[in-house]
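Open question from group meeting: does this chain pack into something compact, or does most of it stay loose? Before anyone orders reagents, we agreed to write out a predicted structure and look at it together. Recording both the input and the output here so the notebook holds the full record.
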Amino acid sequence: MIFRFSLTGIEGLDVYFLRAVATAAKLASSLAEDTTFVSEGSPALYLLPAILGGAGVNIISHVLIKHLDEANKLFKQDHENS
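Structure tokens returned:
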């Protein structure tokens, strides 16, 4: 469960740091930084955090659904025997 939440947390940190680097790149005089972080290609840098966050959310969702299915089975068994 910790792994799943860490993937989602890493995604948030990545987006924060990418925005901070993009802001710093706007102030820098280097052409390479401008083309990487400020240009139209910069949304591609957000793909990795989006994938990590998406994977984390999907794994959390899968675990919760599995847990709820098991709890539902136990509930039905308890009420059938009563």
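Observations to bring back to the group:
The CA atoms of residues 70 and 76 lie 10 Å apart.
Residues 2-81 form one domain.
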